[in-house]
Design a protein that fits this description.
- The protein has 16 helices and twelve strands.
- The protein is elongated, with a radius of gyration of 30 Å.
- It is an alpha+beta fold.
Length: 511
């Protein structure tokens, strides 16, 4: 046996040297287009030449029951070694038949080196047999992964507690678990020249508008970057208005939210390696809606939704209204309140605009610092820091007590938004509207609102107007805008997404 292994090692070294000399003047790209040969050692040498010096590349050589030389190639840490050892190698050395993949639920044969390399880098074990010009791709992926946990950014009081994880197949299974519709379609794509990131585009055939789906697929296919590390890459590269502060594609950690949007004729986009899925197209109204709105009774959901809308308005406009009233329009404030505000501002050496900007920047710095600190410490530092800074600023006479209250209410209002990306847009726009209020008073605020409304009305998300159903006006869509109508009154799906089957609840299904 030792002489056999010595002869094999000598043959392997000779083939590797010949392969290096044969392909030395070729680029990696041209080599990857080659076909596999019937010589297993030459195929192994081609793989090693393509991957270069990788100490985690494992090549296990053995002979099958018929005496043919075999090799399994995989990356250490990305496969389940027990499956390879106990099933594939054991099967090959004890069974006298053609290999059919006894231990793996996925088996594919290929004769292209490019596909072999891609599967090895994805955690697949590649089996090659001497005398055969094709390789067997075995799904033996077995790296450590995070389990299904409760979403961290979209918590609800009532509703499912499972959220997406970083594994693509698990995320698609979470959607399949809820949506047992044979018309659910999953389209696989690969984006990223170097990362080769897997992407699933999911939609319900017969509901989703085919041109919209093709547009989404076309935009993803045109993404030409070397790396896609998170779904945010795809979101930013395929949205309509890249310079707009408002998100035009919704991201979510919740499988039930993706399923609900699929049932409205939208598409879901899942990216491997991230727990955040995407929903497209998106309209402005869905960023202040929560899945919990549909799990509670309609009057409770309506009240909570109106509170969110008021909170978002406060988060955007309250500091600028304070600046405008105190600097330009004090006659519009009740007399007693004017006196109280004047007494509080008597020691403040700055105008109200500088005062508001100082406090807002301080709160934003504290908020960002609390996010970056370790979990148990972050919230405590954020709350205590805000109290200490606010009290110290009032004691030092840098800001007035009313300003501290306004900034605190504004900050709390920004937390009421269910969507983090939409809340970020509101926080960012708060500063230009404050500047306009400091320069022009209420006229500046109204100018800002007009510009924002014109901008929002001009946005489209994959052909769907962003301000639907307000602009263009759709009375049926208003049932799920500011209020949430009872389920038995929402018999049809929103018409703005051009769904083919518009009926959601038929007469015979009505409770």
């Amino acid at each position: 046996m030792s002489q056999f292994w010595k002869a094999w090692q000598k043959r392997k070294d000779t083939l590797q040297a010949n392969t290096l000399q044969k392909h030395a003047d070729k680029s990696m790209e041209s080599v990857s287009d080659l076909q596999l040969t019937t010589d297993v050692e030459e195929n192994v040498s081609l793989i090693q030449f393509q991957l270069g010096k990788c100490d985690d590349l494992v090549v296990r050589r053995f002979q099958n029951k018929e005496g043919n030389d075999c090799a399994i190639v995989f990356l250490d840490g990305m496969v389940d070694r027990n499956v390879i050892s106990q099933f594939i190698i054991t099967y090959m050395t004890t069974t006298d038949m053609t290999y059919e993949g006894p231990a793996t639920n996925e088996l594919e044969a290929t004769d292209r080196l490019r596909q072999v390399i891609r599967n090895i880098l994805s955690g697949t074990a590649v089996l090659m047999i001497d005398g055969e010009s094709q390789a067997y791709l075995n799904n033996t992926r077995g790296w450590d992964r995070r389990g299904v946990e409760e979403p961290q950014t979209e918590s609800v009081v009532r509703g499912p507690r499972d959220g997406f994880c970083e594994t693509l197949c698990v995320n698609s299974a979470l959607i399949r678990f809820r949506l047992k519709d044979p018309n659910l379609r999953v389209r696989h794509m690969v984006v990223g020249q170097r990362t080769q990131t897997d992407i699933y585009v999911m939609y319900i055939e017969g509901l989703a508008h085919p041109p919209m789906i093709e547009e989404i697929m076309s935009r993803i296919d045109k993404v030409n970057v070397d790396a896609v590390l998170e779904s945010g890459y795809i979101e930013q590269l395929i949205q309509d208005r890249r310079w707009s502060p408002f998100p035009q594609i919704q991201n979510t950690e919740r499988p039930d939210k993706v399923v609900a949007n699929l049932l409205e004729g939208k598409a879901g986009i899942l990216v491997d390696g991230t727990p955040f899925g995407l929903v497209a197209p998106a309209v402005f109204s869905q960023f202040y809606q929560s899945p919990e709105d549909y799990y509670e009774r309609f009057y409770i959901a309506t009240l909570i939704r109106l509170i969110r809308i008021i909170s978002i308005s406060i988060a955007l406009l309250l500091p600028s209204l304070y600046i405008a009233f105190s600097s330009f329009h004090p006659e519009m404030i009740p007399s007693r309140l004017v006196i109280a505000m004047a007494a509080g501002r008597s020691t403040v050496p700055f105008p109200s605009l500088v005062e508001a900007l100082f406090m807002e920047l301080a709160i934003e710095i504290l908020r960002e610092a609390s996010v970056r600190l370790p979990g148990p410490i972050g919230p405590t530092i954020g709350i205590v820091g805000a109290l200490v800074v606010g009290e110290a600023a009032v004691t030092a006479g840098l800001v007035s007590p009313v300003m501290v209250i306004i900034v605190a209410v504004t900050t709390i209002g920004s937390f009421a938004s269910p969507s983090y990306s939409a809340a970020i847009a509101i926080r960012m726009l708060r500063f230009p509207v404050m500047a306009l209020a400091g320069m022009f008073g209420l006229y500046g605020i109204m100018l800002f609102l007009i510009v924002i409304m014109v901008h929002l009305s001009s946005i489209k998300s994959f052909g769907v107007p962003y301000m639907s159903p307000l602009s263009p006006l759709n009375l049926l869509g208003m049932r799920d805008l500011f209020i949430r109508a009872p389920h038995h009154l929402m018999k049809t799906r929103p018409g703005m997404f051009h769904v083919h089957d518009k009926v959601r609840m038929r007469e015979e299904d009505k409770p």
